[in-house]
Structure formats: structure tokens, C-alpha cells
Design goal:
By secondary structure, the protein is of the alpha+beta class. The strands form three sheets. It has a five-stranded antiparallel sheet with strand order 2-1-5-4-3. A hairpin with a 4-residue loop joins strand 1 and strand 2. Helix 1 packs antiparallel against helix 4 and helix 6 runs parallel beside helix 7. The longest helix is centred in the middle third of the chain and has 82 residues. It is rod-shaped, with a radius of gyration of 49 Å.
């Protein structure tokens, strides 16, 4: 079942990635298609303009070989070209930049000087094509003089003194190009918005899948711990009663026995029974259902009481305990928090080397216990697992019980480091 869920999550991730990639491919195709269309429109407009200017050039040559043609006919020709479709205006500048012809002043381009060949300028929704050539400066005067003198006949080249340089600017309507650009940008914005939503959806789905899998893992652990708790509770009950009988019989025998050697053996037996009884109590605590009697308790008083309970154990191992903190009141079950701190300090004492130091720091925010570790450091990710221990003695339930009680209060137990070992209890999540 879990494998099916993981497989579904992986398939969903792949589908989202595929959709994002397809959207990117669509964006690239969209850009290429519109770029090609824009270039086609632009070339078409420029070709139309070039053809119009070539017509003007041809007409100008025809005027120059005519005895009676001059600037007036050229102007009329320009005005006729200006009425063509897609042509907004055709302006003629003299060699000083002065406008000679300007049929549509609303579309007057700037003077660009004398142009060699053709020059194309794009601006907004217009494309302006510039070119320069020579024409008659005073055609009537030149031809009249030539007619009177009889010096020039049809087909002969004009007198250079009667020619002047002019610049023609043809203004073409390129609104179709501008419209295509706007459509391309609008399409890109739409694709971009869809892409952003897809990426956000992908991130949210990934986070949801992770949380879902984490929740499944937590439920699985809770179920396992519940099963272990039931078994521990049953086992502890079955062991506790005969253990109490054995303890009583051993104590009675120790009182009656006169032999020092036998009394010493019985004393060691009693110690081992007490240790076994402690383990049974851990099993019972871990297995039973917990309920908290919440009340205001002093963190400082809790620390002092716990240290007093363990003072003999600390002295026997020559381990020093350093206390640092500010007293504060917290809402908690006094007995259960005593067990939490007792387990933490006992764990620190057992893990510390002889003549080591256990540090306890408390405040209104939480409690921190720190100690050096003698021997192998425990695995951090397994520390709160029931029955996990690196010590020769102990049930491996101490930190598991700490975690259960903290969870009951809404507190958080977190191991910051394994060597030195630092564990922190936060009052609040």
C-alpha cells in the first residue's frame, strides 16, 4: 500500500515536470512563430517601399530627359505615390534639409542628410526608407535657355548647373508589425503566468507529498510504539509480582544467614533484583496510558529535587554537576516532569566519564542537559527509539519515555549533539 502511494507521488511529480517542460516548449515555438511572422511583415513593407522609391527613381530619369518636365511633375508624382496603400507619407528634402514636398505633415520624418543607397529607420508603428538622388533645380529656366540656344536635344544629358541633390523619405505604415509584436508579448505573458502557476503548484504538491509521507511514517512509528507499549505493560506485570516475591525471600534469607560470604552473595543478588525492578518500572511507564495533571510548577525547584535524588549516584562516580538558570513557572505535571529530568540526568551520569561534569541550564523557555560521552557516541536518529541503547545496563526506554511525556505536555525534545551529548527540552513547540 505504501509502495503504491510512493509510486503515485513519483508519477504525479513526473506529470507536473512534463507539463512544465511542455509549457516551455510551447513558449519557444510561440516566440519562433511570431518572430518569423514579424520578419515577414517587415520585409514585405520594406519591399513595397523600395519598389515605390524605385518607381520614383525611374520617373525622375524620365523627367530629366524631357524638355518640359521638371520639379512640378516630380512633385505630382510624389503626391500620387503617397496615396498608395501602406504609404503614410513621402517627403522630399533639398540639399540643405528644407522640405520641398510633404503631402501628409502629420507623418513628417526627420532629415537624415544625404543618403548613399537606402537607409531604413524603424520607429513605433512606422518604417521610414531614405534615399538621395539628383534632379533639376530650375527646370523651366534650364530648358528655356537650352531651347533658345538650341544646344540641347532630346536624349542629351542635362546641364549639371541645373541639377540639385534631394533626399526622399518614404514613411510606411508598420502597424501590422507592431500588432504582431504586441500579440507575441501578450502570448508570452500568458504563458509566463501559466508557467508560474505550474511551478507554484509543483512546489506545493512536492511539499504536500513530503508532509504526507512524513505523516505516514509518524503514524507507523506511533502504531509500533503502541504495540510495544502494550507488550511492555503485559510483560512488566507478569515479571513484577514474582520479582517482588524473590526480593522479599532474598531479604529474609539475608537476615537469617550468618555466613559473611553467603550474605555478600545475597546482597549482590538484591542489587541485581533492584536493577531489574527499575527496568520493569520503565516498561510499565512506557506501556501505560499517560495522563497529565497540569499545574504551575517551578523549574528551579524541579531541578533541585531531581539533583537531590541523584546526588549519591553523582558522588559515587565523582561526576560534578553544574547548574545555571533562572527560575520560572511552567504549566506541567510535576511528577511526570520530575521523571523527565530524572531520566535525562541519569542518562547523562551513566554516559559521562569518571570525574566528568554534567551541565544543566534551565529557563522559562526550556531545559538543556549537556555531558561528555565516555566510549561510543549513540546514533542521533535512533536515540528516541524504544529499547535502543549503547550502554551495558539499561532498558533503552529512558529517552523514549522522555519523548512521550514531552509530547503529552506539548513540549519538544531535541538532541542537538551526540558528543558532547546535548539534549534540549523546549516548553512549547
Amino acid at each position: 500500500m505504501e509502495q503504491n502511494k510512493n509510486g503515485f507521488a513519483e508519477k504525479l511529480k513526473l506529470v507536473l515536470i512534463a507539463v512544465i517542460l511542455l509549457n516551455l516548449i510551447h513558449a519557444v515555438i510561440h516566440i519562433k512563430s511570431y518572430t518569423r511572422n514579424i520578419e515577414t511583415y517587415k520585409h514585405h513593407i520594406i519591399d513595397m517601399g523600395m519598389n515605390s522609391l524605385k518607381s520614383l527613381e525611374g520617373g525622375r530619369r524620365a523627367f530629366m530627359v524631357s524638355r518640359y518636365a521638371g520639379m512640378d511633375r516630380l512633385i505630382r508624382f510624389v503626391e500620387e505615390l503617397s496615396t498608395q496603400n501602406s504609404v503614410l507619407n513621402m517627403v522630399i528634402f533639398d540639399e540643405d534639409g528644407k522640405i520641398i514636398v510633404n503631402p501628409s505633415p502629420a507623418h513628417t520624418p526627420p532629415y537624415m542628410g544625404e543618403i548613399s543607397g537606402y537607409s531604413i529607420v524603424e520607429s513605433g508603428e512606422t518604417i521610414t526608407i531614405y534615399t538621395s538622388f539628383k534632379t533639376f533645380s530650375n527646370p523651366n529656366h534650364g530648358h528655356m535657355m537650352e531651347r533658345r540656344s538650341g544646344q540641347r536635344m532630346m536624349g542629351e544629358p542635362p546641364n549639371p548647373e541645373n541639377l540639385q541633390d534631394i533626399t526622399v523619405a518614404l514613411v510606411m505604415d508598420s502597424s501590422a508589425v507592431a500588432l504582431a509584436k504586441r500579440q507575441m508579448y501578450t502570448g508570452l505573458v500568458q504563458i509566463g503566468i501559466i508557467l508560474v502557476f505550474l511551478i507554484v503548484a509543483y512546489v506545493l504538491v512536492i511539499r504536500f507529498i513530503r508532509l504526507h509521507l512524513l505523516q505516514i511514517e509518524r503514524f507507523k512509528k506511533v502504531e509500533q510504539e503502541a504495540e510495544m507499549g502494550k507488550m511492555s505493560h503485559i510483560l512488566a506485570h507478569e515479571i513484577r509480582n514474582p520479582l517482588s516475591s524473590i526480593s522479599g525471600l532474598i531479604s529474609f534469607a539475608a537476615k537469617k544467614e550468618q555466613s559473611p560470604d553467603i550474605k555478600d552473595i545475597l546482597a549482590h543478588t538484591t542489587d541485581e533484583i533492584n536493577r531489574l525492578n527499575t527496568i520493569v518500572n520503565d516498561f510499565l511507564t512506557f506501556g501505560k496510558e499517560l495522563k497529565a495533571d497540569m499545574q504551575n510548577i517551578s523549574v528551579g525547584a524541579l531541578a533541585d529535587k531531581t539533583i537531590n535524588l541523584l546526588s549519591a549516584d553523582f558522588k559515587s562516580k565523582s561526576v560534578r554537576i553544574a547548574i545555571n538558570g533562572e527560575d520560572a513557572l511552567i504549566k506541567a505535571d510535576a511528577d511526570k516532569m520530575l521523571q523527565v529530568l530524572f531520566n535525562l540526568l541519569l542518562n547523562a551520569l551513566q554516559a559521562s566519564p569518571e570525574h566528568g561534569t554534567v551541565e544543566i541550564d534551565y529557563s522559562e523557555k526550556g531545559i538543556t542537559v549537556k555531558n561528555d560521552v565516555a566510549g561510543e557516541a549513540p546514533e542521533k536518529n535512533r536515540l528516541f527509539e524504544p529499547f535502543y541503547t549503547t550502554k551495558a545496563k539499561g532498558s533503552g526506554l529512558g529517552l523514549a519515555v522522555v519523548k512521550r511525556i514531552c509530547a503529552l505536555h506539548g513540549f519538544q525534545a531535541d538532541v542537538k549533539s551526540t558528543n558532547p551529548f546535548i539534549i534540549e527540552i523546549k516548553f512549547g513547540r
